[in-house]
TrEMBL record:
InterPro entries linked: dTDP_Gluc_deHydtase, NAD(P)-bd_dom, NAD(P)-bd_dom_sf
Name recorded for this polypeptide: dTDP-glucose 4,6-dehydratase
Cleavable signal peptide: none
Example GO biological process: nucleotide-sugar metabolic process
SUPFAM superfamilies: NAD(P)-binding Rossmann-fold domains (SSF51735)
The NAD(P)-binding domain, residue ranges: 4-326
Annotated source species: Acinetobacter apis
Length: 354
C-alpha cells in the first residue's frame, strides 16, 4: 500500500509513520507543513528508509495536494495534521479554523477528485481515515459515563469545535459523495516525542529544570491517558481493517486526575533523576496551582469496547508502565528536547504562564 500521512512530523503522526515503516512493507508519504509542532528529528529512525518520503506542504494548499495525490497514488490517507493545543486555541483560534476546518476541507476535495478517477476496485478499497479527538464530545463532569461513538457532540474550546467541524465534513463527504471514510476519536496521548507544551512533557522538563509545575485550577480534572504507540497500532488496524463509514473511539482505560499525574511524575523522577537542581528538596515542592483554563472540561473517559470487539485492539501499556517509559525517554533524549525548546517555544511559555 501507499499511505499518505498528514501531520507525520507531529507527536502522534511521527509514531504512526515509525510504526508503518518499521512493522509493515507499505510506502509512506508524510505531508506536513512543519509548524512549531512539526519536527523531522522525531523521524530520524526512518528518514533514510526507501519506503519513506516527506513533502513540506500546507494541507490548505489544494494545488500542491492535487499534485501529491497524482504522483504518490495513495491507497489510503491518514489525516492527522492539525493545530492540537487547547490553550493556544484559546489565545488565538485563527490557525485552528484554517488548518483543522479549511485544511480538512481541501484535503477531502483533493482526495475526492483523485478517488473519482480510480477504477471501481481501487475506489472500493481506498480509505480516507480522519484522526480526531474525544474532546468533540465535551465534558463528563460529575458523572460515571463514558464517551461512546454515539455520544452527541458538544465541544467546549475553539480547538475541539474545529475538530468537531472537521468530523462533520468528513461524514458529509461520505454520505453525499460516497468517499470511503473512517473516523477515530481518541483520548489523551502521552509518550516519546511529545511537544513540551502539553501537560506530561511540560511537567517532566520543568521539574528537571527546577521550575514551577503549573496545575490549572484545583487539579481535579480527569483525563483518560493512552500511550502513543498503542494509539499508532490502533490507527493502523482501523485504516487497514475497518469497514467504510465506521467510527471508533480509542482510549486507554486510564482515568487520572491531573494532580495525581503530576505527583506520579515527581515520584518517578525522585527514583530516576535523584540529582535535583540545587536547593530543591523534593520535586513535589515545585507544584504550583495557577489560573484555570477558561471553559476547562472536567472529565473525559472513553469506552473503547467497540474497537476491541470489532478489531481485537487493546492497549499494551498500563499508565504505570507507559509513564515510566516516557520519563526514561525524556531523561535519555536531551538533544531532541534541547532542539524543540526554541525561541518560539520560550515565547509561548512566557505568555501562557506569566
Ligand atoms: P501535533 O501538534 O503534535 O502535530 C501536528 C502536526 O501537524 C505537526 O507536525 C504540524 O507541523 C502539522 N500541521 C499543522 N498544521 C498543518 C498544515 N496546515 N498543513 C500540514 N501540516 C500541518 O499534534 P498531535 O498531538 O500529534 O495530534 C495529531 C492529531 O491527533 C490531531 O489531529 C489531533 O487533533 C489528534 N488527537 C490528538 C490527541 C493527543 O492527545 N495529542 C488525542 C486525540 C486526537
Ligand atoms: O483528549 C484528547 C486531547 O488531549 C487532544 O485532542 C489534544 O490535542 C491534546 O492536546 C489533549 O488535550 P488536553 O487539553 O487534555 O491536554 P493538555 O496536555 O494540554 O492538558 C491536560 C490536562 O492538564 C488538562 O486538564 C489541562 C491540564 N494542564 C495542562 C497544562 C499544559 C495543567 O493543569 N497545566 C498545564 O500547564
Amino acid at each position: 500500500m501507499n499511505i499518505l500521512v498528514t501531520g507525520g512530523a507531529g507527536f502522534i503522526g511521527s509514531a504512526v509513520v515509525r510504526h508503518i515503516i518499521q512493522n509493515t512493507t507499505h510506502n509512506v508519504l508524510n505531508v506536513d507543513k512543519l509548524t512549531y509542532a512539526g519536527n523531522l528529528e522525531s523521524l530520524a529512525s526512518v528518514a533514510d528508509n526507501e519506503r519513506y518520503q516527506f513533502s513540506q506542504t500546507d494541507i490548505c494548499n489544494r494545488e500542491q495536494l492535487d499534485q501529491l495525490f497524482q504522483e504518490f497514488k495513495p491507497h489510503a490517507v491518514m489525516h492527522l495534521a492539525a493545530e492540537s493545543h487547547v490553550d493556544r486555541s484559546i489565545t488565538g483560534s485563527k490557525d485552528f479554523i484554517e488548518t483543522n476546518i479549511i485544511g480538512t476541507y481541501q484535503l477531502l476535495e483533493a482526495a475526492r477528485q483523485y478517488w473519482g478517477g480510480l477504477d471501481s476496485t481501487a475506489q472500493n478499497t481506498f480509505r480516507f481515515h480522519h484522526i480526531s479527538t474525544d474532546e468533540v464530545y465535551g465534558d463528563l463532569e460529575g458523572t460515571d459515563d463514558l464517551f461512546l461513538e454515539t455520544t452527541p457532540y458538544a465541544p467546549s474550546s475553539p480547538y475541539s469545535a474545529s475538530k468537531a467541524s472537521s468530523d462533520h465534513l468528513v461524514r458529509a463527504w461520505h454520505r453525499t459523495y460516497g468517499l470511503p471514510v473512517v473516523i477515530t476519536n481518541c483520548s489523551n496521548n502521552y509518550g516519546p516525542y511529545h511537544f513540551p507544551e502539553k501537560l506530561i512533557p511540560l511537567i517532566i522538563l520543568n521539574a528537571l529544570a527546577g521550575k514551577p509545575l503549573p496545575v490549572y485550577g484545583n487539579g481535579e480534572q480527569i483525563r483518560d491517558w493512552l500511550y502513543v504507540e498503542d494509539h499508532a497500532r490502533a490507527l493502523y488496524k482501523v485504516v487497514t481493517e475497518a469497514e467504510v463509514g465506521e467510527t471508533y473511539n480509542i482510549g486507554g482505560h486510564n482515568e487520572q486526575k491531573n494532580i495525581d499525574v503530576v505527583k506520579e511524575i515527581c515520584k518517578l523522577l525522585e527514583e530516576l533523576a535523584p540529582n535535583k537542581p540545587e536547593g530543591l528538596n523534593q520535586y513535589q515542592d515545585l507544584i504550583t496551582y495557577v489560573k484555570d483554563r477558561p471553559g476547562h472540561d472536567l472529565r473525559y473517559a472513553i469506552d473503547a469496547g467497540k474497537i476491541e470487539r470489532d478489531l481485537g485492539w487493546t492497549p499494551n501499556e498500563s499508565f504505570e508502565t507507559g509513564l515510566r517509559k516516557t520519563v526514561q525517554w525524556y531523561l535519555e533524549n536531551t538533544q531532541w528536547v534541547e532542539h524543540v525548546q526554541s525561541g518560539a517555544y520560550q515565547n509561548w511559555l512566557q505568555t501562557q504562564y506569566k
